[in-house]
Amino acid sequence: MNAFLRKSFSIFAAMAVMGGLVIHDVGAADVGKLVEDCANCHGKDGASTESTVPIIGGMSAFYISESMAIYTDKDRPCVEAEYPAGEHKGSKTDMCKVAAELSEADIEAIAEFYASKPFVRAKQEFDAEKAARGKQLHESACEKCHEDGGSSAEDDAGVLAGQWMHYLDQTFKAYSSGERAMTKKMKPKFEKLDDGEKQDLLHYYASMQ
Length: 209
Hints:
The chain is about 50% helix and about 0% strand. The chain has two domains: about 5-115, Cytochrome Bc1 Complex, Chain D, domain 2, CATH 1.10.760; about 130-205, Cytochrome c-like domain (Cytochrome Bc1 Complex, Chain D, domain 2, Orthogonal Bundle), CATH 1.10.760.10. It has helices at about 5-20, 30-40, 60-70, 95-100, 105-115, 130-140, 145-150, 165-175, 185-190, 195-205, and strands spanning about 80, 90-95. Residues about 1-30 have low confidence and may be disordered. It is built from ten helices and two strands. The protein has a two-stranded antiparallel sheet. It is mainly α.
Protein backbone atom coordinates (compact mmCIF):
# COMPACT_ATOMS: atom_id res chain seq x y z
CA MET A 1 0.00 0.00 0.00
CA ASN A 2 1.53 3.36 -0.98
CA ALA A 3 1.85 6.31 1.37
CA PHE A 4 -1.13 8.16 -0.11
CA LEU A 5 -3.46 5.22 0.34
CA ARG A 6 -2.15 4.55 3.85
CA LYS A 7 -2.75 8.17 4.84
CA SER A 8 -6.19 8.19 3.24
CA PHE A 9 -7.16 5.02 5.11
CA SER A 10 -5.90 6.41 8.41
CA ILE A 11 -7.74 9.72 7.94
CA PHE A 12 -10.95 7.88 7.03
CA ALA A 13 -10.63 5.65 10.10
CA ALA A 14 -10.09 8.64 12.36
CA MET A 15 -13.12 10.43 10.88
CA ALA A 16 -15.23 7.30 11.34
CA VAL A 17 -14.27 7.04 15.00
CA MET A 18 -15.09 10.71 15.61
CA GLY A 19 -18.38 10.30 13.79
CA GLY A 20 -19.42 7.40 16.00
CA LEU A 21 -18.91 4.68 13.38
CA VAL A 22 -17.11 1.44 14.19
CA ILE A 23 -14.92 -0.20 11.59
CA HIS A 24 -14.71 -3.96 11.94
CA ASP A 25 -12.78 -6.60 10.08
CA VAL A 26 -14.48 -9.98 10.39
CA GLY A 27 -11.16 -11.57 11.33
CA ALA A 28 -9.99 -8.84 13.69
CA ALA A 29 -9.20 -10.02 17.19
CA ASP A 30 -10.24 -8.27 20.38
CA VAL A 31 -7.89 -5.31 20.93
CA GLY A 32 -6.98 -6.60 24.40
CA LYS A 33 -5.63 -9.79 22.87
CA LEU A 34 -3.84 -7.88 20.12
CA VAL A 35 -1.95 -5.58 22.49
CA GLU A 36 -1.14 -8.45 24.85
CA ASP A 37 1.57 -9.58 22.45
CA CYS A 38 2.75 -5.99 21.91
CA ALA A 39 3.15 -5.58 25.67
CA ASN A 40 5.67 -8.41 25.81
CA CYS A 41 8.16 -6.04 24.14
CA HIS A 42 6.74 -2.52 24.53
CA GLY A 43 5.52 -2.91 28.11
CA LYS A 44 2.11 -2.34 29.63
CA ASP A 45 0.22 0.38 27.75
CA GLY A 46 3.29 0.96 25.60
CA ALA A 47 5.48 2.21 28.47
CA SER A 48 8.63 0.31 27.49
CA THR A 49 11.17 -0.46 30.21
CA GLU A 50 13.72 -1.76 27.69
CA SER A 51 16.17 0.84 26.38
CA THR A 52 16.27 -0.83 22.95
CA VAL A 53 12.48 -0.86 22.60
CA PRO A 54 10.61 2.40 21.92
CA ILE A 55 7.90 3.78 24.16
CA ILE A 56 4.75 3.82 22.01
CA GLY A 57 1.97 4.68 24.45
CA GLY A 58 0.88 8.26 23.75
CA MET A 59 2.01 8.32 20.12
CA SER A 60 -0.63 9.50 17.65
CA ALA A 61 -2.85 6.86 16.05
CA PHE A 62 -1.74 8.03 12.61
CA TYR A 63 1.96 7.72 13.50
CA ILE A 64 1.52 4.18 14.83
CA SER A 65 -0.63 2.94 11.95
CA GLU A 66 1.69 4.55 9.39
CA SER A 67 4.72 2.96 11.05
CA MET A 68 3.07 -0.46 10.97
CA ALA A 69 2.18 -0.01 7.30
CA ILE A 70 5.82 0.83 6.56
CA TYR A 71 6.90 -2.35 8.36
CA THR A 72 4.33 -4.32 6.36
CA ASP A 73 5.95 -3.00 3.18
CA LYS A 74 9.41 -3.72 4.65
CA ASP A 75 10.43 -0.12 4.05
CA ARG A 76 12.07 0.15 7.47
CA PRO A 77 14.90 -2.01 8.92
CA CYS A 78 13.46 -5.23 10.33
CA VAL A 79 15.87 -5.81 13.20
CA GLU A 80 15.50 -9.23 14.81
CA ALA A 81 15.15 -9.13 18.58
CA GLU A 82 14.20 -11.41 21.47
CA TYR A 83 10.95 -11.09 23.37
CA PRO A 84 12.01 -9.81 26.83
CA ALA A 85 8.82 -11.10 28.48
CA GLY A 86 5.67 -13.15 27.97
CA GLU A 87 5.01 -16.63 26.64
CA HIS A 88 7.46 -16.09 23.77
CA LYS A 89 10.27 -14.86 26.04
CA GLY A 90 13.67 -15.70 24.53
CA SER A 91 12.31 -16.39 21.05
CA LYS A 92 13.08 -13.97 18.25
CA THR A 93 10.96 -11.93 15.89
CA ASP A 94 11.02 -8.57 14.09
CA MET A 95 8.49 -5.85 13.42
CA CYS A 96 8.04 -6.78 9.75
CA LYS A 97 6.93 -10.27 10.76
CA VAL A 98 4.65 -8.85 13.45
CA ALA A 99 3.05 -6.34 11.07
CA ALA A 100 2.54 -8.96 8.35
CA GLU A 101 0.30 -10.98 10.67
CA LEU A 102 -2.08 -8.06 11.31
CA SER A 103 -5.00 -6.85 9.24
CA GLU A 104 -5.62 -3.15 8.61
CA ALA A 105 -8.44 -3.27 11.16
CA ASP A 106 -6.08 -4.86 13.71
CA ILE A 107 -3.52 -2.12 13.13
CA GLU A 108 -6.10 0.64 13.48
CA ALA A 109 -7.38 -0.91 16.73
CA ILE A 110 -3.86 -1.15 18.13
CA ALA A 111 -3.07 2.42 17.04
CA GLU A 112 -6.18 3.83 18.71
CA PHE A 113 -5.46 1.87 21.89
CA TYR A 114 -1.92 3.19 22.30
CA ALA A 115 -2.88 6.72 21.24
CA SER A 116 -5.30 6.79 24.17
CA LYS A 117 -2.51 6.03 26.69
CA PRO A 118 -0.07 8.51 28.24
CA PHE A 119 3.51 8.75 27.03
CA VAL A 120 5.56 7.61 30.04
CA ARG A 121 8.97 9.22 29.78
CA ALA A 122 12.00 7.03 30.41
CA LYS A 123 14.11 7.59 33.51
CA GLN A 124 17.68 7.55 32.23
CA GLU A 125 21.05 9.20 32.67
CA PHE A 126 22.05 12.18 30.53
CA ASP A 127 24.75 14.82 30.29
CA ALA A 128 23.38 18.24 31.24
CA GLU A 129 25.87 20.21 29.10
CA LYS A 130 25.10 18.14 26.03
CA ALA A 131 21.39 18.46 26.75
CA ALA A 132 21.68 22.26 26.88
CA ARG A 133 23.39 22.33 23.49
CA GLY A 134 20.83 19.85 22.17
CA LYS A 135 17.99 22.11 23.25
CA GLN A 136 19.38 24.94 21.13
CA LEU A 137 19.83 22.60 18.16
CA HIS A 138 16.31 21.30 18.47
CA GLU A 139 14.84 24.79 18.62
CA SER A 140 16.74 25.90 15.52
CA ALA A 141 16.40 22.79 13.36
CA CYS A 142 13.74 20.41 14.66
CA GLU A 143 11.02 22.34 16.47
CA LYS A 144 8.98 23.10 13.37
CA CYS A 145 8.07 19.43 12.88
CA HIS A 146 8.70 18.09 16.41
CA GLU A 147 6.77 20.65 18.44
CA ASP A 148 7.05 21.45 22.14
CA GLY A 149 10.59 20.15 22.39
CA GLY A 150 9.62 16.91 20.66
CA SER A 151 6.90 16.16 23.20
CA SER A 152 3.81 16.69 21.03
CA ALA A 153 2.04 13.69 19.53
CA GLU A 154 -0.29 15.92 17.52
CA ASP A 155 2.30 16.62 14.83
CA ASP A 156 2.22 12.90 13.89
CA ALA A 157 6.04 12.84 13.86
CA GLY A 158 6.57 10.65 16.91
CA VAL A 159 7.35 11.72 20.48
CA LEU A 160 11.07 12.30 21.06
CA ALA A 161 11.06 13.93 24.49
CA GLY A 162 11.63 11.20 27.07
CA GLN A 163 12.15 8.45 24.52
CA TRP A 164 14.87 5.91 25.28
CA MET A 165 18.25 7.33 24.24
CA HIS A 166 19.60 3.97 23.12
CA TYR A 167 16.64 3.43 20.80
CA LEU A 168 16.95 6.94 19.34
CA ASP A 169 20.68 6.47 18.89
CA GLN A 170 20.08 3.34 16.82
CA THR A 171 17.44 5.23 14.83
CA PHE A 172 19.87 8.08 14.14
CA LYS A 173 22.45 5.55 12.93
CA ALA A 174 19.89 3.96 10.62
CA TYR A 175 19.11 7.41 9.19
CA SER A 176 22.81 8.15 8.74
CA SER A 177 23.50 4.85 6.95
CA GLY A 178 20.47 5.20 4.70
CA GLU A 179 18.84 2.05 6.11
CA ARG A 180 15.88 4.11 7.25
CA ALA A 181 14.40 6.76 5.00
CA MET A 182 13.86 10.34 6.15
CA THR A 183 11.22 12.82 5.05
CA LYS A 184 12.26 15.40 2.47
CA LYS A 185 12.09 18.16 5.09
CA MET A 186 14.17 16.26 7.62
CA LYS A 187 16.92 14.89 5.36
CA PRO A 188 18.89 18.11 4.60
CA LYS A 189 18.75 19.24 8.24
CA PHE A 190 19.78 15.89 9.67
CA GLU A 191 22.65 15.47 7.21
CA LYS A 192 24.14 18.78 8.37
CA LEU A 193 24.56 17.46 11.91
CA ASP A 194 27.91 16.06 12.96
CA ASP A 195 28.21 13.15 15.40
CA GLY A 196 28.62 15.45 18.38
CA GLU A 197 25.49 17.42 17.54
CA LYS A 198 23.49 14.21 17.18
CA GLN A 199 24.64 13.18 20.64
CA ASP A 200 23.62 16.59 21.99
CA LEU A 201 20.12 16.08 20.63
CA LEU A 202 19.93 12.59 22.14
CA HIS A 203 20.89 13.91 25.56
CA TYR A 204 18.36 16.72 25.26
CA TYR A 205 15.51 14.31 24.57
CA ALA A 206 16.72 12.03 27.38
CA SER A 207 16.79 14.98 29.79
CA MET A 208 13.03 15.48 29.48
CA GLN A 209 11.79 13.22 32.26
